């Protein structure tokens, strides 16, 4: 009888779409393995999800899956981007923690579904570890960053102890960082996560340091990466956790394991309505000719930065597909007069959308490059499709990702800390033509490894099998 006990996994993402999407993908993979899933959204994100997907139809296809939602403490009409995100982080402890505790207690008492047998929580939602310990439910941490980003964030307090942080932005930003084991010859000051540019006393620093430390109380770690990409750092992470499961790129693993992934809920995970008209436009463009431009879901540009990018793209004379979200420009500032040349060239050679089906775009044969903010999801998606990148990182792990892309994996160029039309134009030409040879071989090679990792017998495929098995065992001993 006990052998038939169905694992019930409660999944708690940080309530930002870049974190929700990989968590949803994992949730779907576990549901496909026959598990019961309770996915904890914020009210804000759940409302957005309902606008882009038919949830009752999804429940019919996946009866073991249920969404629940709790408040993130911010007003429902306030976009979650820019500095307000810091407030969202702080609210996790004061607002989300008691709500999550209540939720878990009610799930345990419910007679409709068996009680939770494990929690999988984002690495920045460590209050869940306190709740799990108090209520005796096993917990696994899943920071949705890559291993290098994660490892760097975990060393924030060491960087302070060693005097490498803080530093002034006017100082020598190319000074090497030497106190992160395994990354001694990789990072410079400018490659450290965005928060390292803050004063040590800044509450965000305190938040990052304490989350990174609390995360280690979970004995098991899940990462959206693949062994072949980040092996040395994954080994280092193994010294802090009893078990580490690298199961990425998750979006690709889902496609390998679930036949009709077009129906999947994680394809709606970025919580915005996609404009697929760009696919038709891409069909009309020559092979590998288009540079795709997107800065993800949380960063904002000033009007001047947007104009510099626009000039740089137009002056490169390459066709471009650009995601310009409604809230991309700080405070929704008016753009004012746009020069005729920009308008004209964009009409002839460019295409703008408010949100693209990015995974499909990157897989399209006309796309030859990606100008990105180096969010981890975008980085992995581009790596998987063998599309080389220009990195323009701004916050969090993005700076580290950009450095790995350019220096370690050699799958792109790093443009961090500049935003100038001439540099942008040159970088685009380098990526698409002049210096493409320098990176295209490694880009193809790493894409080949990424594809191998999600195939049957590939590293991530096997690691997911192990995780599923371990979650099953956990449910028996619980
Ligand atoms: C955030 C942080 O920026 C990032 O540093 C962290 O690693 C994860 O959380 P975000 O800014 O949204 O995420 O960037 P990213 O991680 O790249 O995720 C964006 C996701 O949205 C990708 O999966 C991408 O496919 C999707 N997307 C983006 C679209 O589907 N359409 C678009 O037009 C743009």
From TrEMBL:
The protein's GO terms of the molecular function aspect are: 7-deoxyloganetic acid glucosyltransferase activity; quercetin 3-O-glucosyltransferase activity; quercetin 7-O-glucosyltransferase activity
Listed A to Z, the keywords are: Glycosyltransferase, Transferase
Quote the EC number: 2.4.1.-
Which top class of enzyme applies to this chain?
transferase
Q: Which reaction does it catalyse?
A: 7-deoxyloganetate + UDP-alpha-D-glucose = 7-deoxyloganate + UDP + H(+)
Q: Which CDD domains match?
A: GT1_Gtf-like
| A Pfam family matched in the record | UDPGT
- Asked whether the keyword Transit peptide is assigned, the reply is no
- PROSITE patterns per record: UDPGT
- InterPro entries with a match to the protein in the record: UDP_glucos_trans, UDP_glycos_trans_CS
The answer to whether UniProt assigns keyword Lipid metabolism to this entry is: no
Highest taxon of the lineage: Eukaryota
Q: Family membership, please give it.
A: Belongs to the UDP-glycosyltransferase family.
What PANTHER family does this protein map onto? GLUCOSYL/GLUCURONOSYL TRANSFERASES (PTHR11926), GLYCOSYLTRANSFERASE (PTHR11926:SF1392)
Q: What protein am I looking at? A: Glycosyltransferase
Q: What is the lineage of its organism?
A: Eukaryota, Viridiplantae, Streptophyta, Embryophyta, Tracheophyta
């Amino acid at each position: 009888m006990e052998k038939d006990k169905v694992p019930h996994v409660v999944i708690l993402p940080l309530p930002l779409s870049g974190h929700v999407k990989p968590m949803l993908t994992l949730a779907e993979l576990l549901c496909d393995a026959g598990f019961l899933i309770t996915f904890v959204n914020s009210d804000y994100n759940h409302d957005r999800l309902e606008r882009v997907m038919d949830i009752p139809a999804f429940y019919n296809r996946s009866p073991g899956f249920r969404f629940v939602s709790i408040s993130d403490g911010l007003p429902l009409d306030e976009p979650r981007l820019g500095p307000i995100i810091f407030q969202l982080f702080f609210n996790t402890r004061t607002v989300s923690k008691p709500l999550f505790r209540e939720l878990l207690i009610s799930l345990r008492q419910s007679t409709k579904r068996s009680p939770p047998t494990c929690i999988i929580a984002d690495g920045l939602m460590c209050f869940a570890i306190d709740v799990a310990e108090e209520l005796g439910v096993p917990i696994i941490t899943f920071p949705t960053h890559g291993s290098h980003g994660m490892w760097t964030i975990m060393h924030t307090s060491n960087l302070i102890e060693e005097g490498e942080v803080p530093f002034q932005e006017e100082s020598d930003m190319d000074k090497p960082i030497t106190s992160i084991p395994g990354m001694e010859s990789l990072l410079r000051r400018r490659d450290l996560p965005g928060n390292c540019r803050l004063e040590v006393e800044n509450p965000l620093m305190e938040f990052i340091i304490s989350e990174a430390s609390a995360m280690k109380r979970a004995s098991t770690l899940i990462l959206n990466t693949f062994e072949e990409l980040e092996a040395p750092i994954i080994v280092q992470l193994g010294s802090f956790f009893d078990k580490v499961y690298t199961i990425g790129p998750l979006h690709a693993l889902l496609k390998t394991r679930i036949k009709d992934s077009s129906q999947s809920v994680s394809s709606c995970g970025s919580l915005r309505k996609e404009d697929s008209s760009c696919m038709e436009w891409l069909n009309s463009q020559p092979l590998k000719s288009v540079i795709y431009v997107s800065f993800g879901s949380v960063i904002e540009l000033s009007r001047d930065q947007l104009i510099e990018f626009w000039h740089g793209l137009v002056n490169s004379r390459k066709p471009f597909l650009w995601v310009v979200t409604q809230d991309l420009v700080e405070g929704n500032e008016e753009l004012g007069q746009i020069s005729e040349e920009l308008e004209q060239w964009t009409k002839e050679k460019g295409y703008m959308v408010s949100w693209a089906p990015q995974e499909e775009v990157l897989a399209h044969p006309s796309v030859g490059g990606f100008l990105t903010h180096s969010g981890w999801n975008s980085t992995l998606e581009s790596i998987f499709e063998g599309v080389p990148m220009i990195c323009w990182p701004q916050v969090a792990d993005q700076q580290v990702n950009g450095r790995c892309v350019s220096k370690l994996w050699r799958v792109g160029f790093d443009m961090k800390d500049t935003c100038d039309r001439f540099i942008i134009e040159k970088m685009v030409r380098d990526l698409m033509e002049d210096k493409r040879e320098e990176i295209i071989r490694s880009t193809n090679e790493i894409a080949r490894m990424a594809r191998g990792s999600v195939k049957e017998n590939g590293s991530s495929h096997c690691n997911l099998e192990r995780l599923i098995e371990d979650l099953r065992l956990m449910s028996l001993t619980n």
